Amino acid sequence: MSECRWQLGRYFVLVATSPFVINVLDQFTDALGAPLRDFSRGRLAVLFADPRPSTWEDAHGVVINAQGLTLWQAWIAVDPIAPRTGRHVTLDPCDHVIVLREWDRIPDEAMLARAIAFALHRNDAG
Q: What pLDDT, in 10s, does the model give residues 46-88?
């Protein structure tokens, strides 16, 4: 295991990553085919290191291939029972986020691996 540091907004996140995770992050591209920016890479690395609803919420919308496929769309493509709606939130009068409904479920590590393989294969085929 090695450690990688990514900037998420004003913050830096230090994540223990395996060479496999770093290799996968290096293969992801944005919708224009360019390597992902550190902000997006960091969101994905945090999810891979600690998959839970809050990290999934931060990473599910990251575009991961040149066809514009998001991580959530890749999951839906390989899992027919993946949720089609996500977290529902509102703001209180002081603009604090209130979660009204959490994700029904999030992908486990095996399902994330299937979704990633699908997205990378689509990237190669595109």
A: 898 889 999 999 999 999 999 999 999 999 999 999 999 999 9
Which residues are paired to 70 by β-bridges? 63
Concatenated DSSP letters for 19-66?
A: HHHHHHHHH-B-TTSPBPPHHHHHHHHHHHHS-SHHHHHHHTT-B-ST
Coil, strand, or helix at residue 13?
A: strand
CA atoms of 122 and 126, how far apart (whole Å): 6
The reported pLDDT for the residue numbered 13 is 46
Query: CB under 8 Å to 20, separation ≥6 — which residues?
Result: none
Q: pTM of the entire structure? A: 0.80
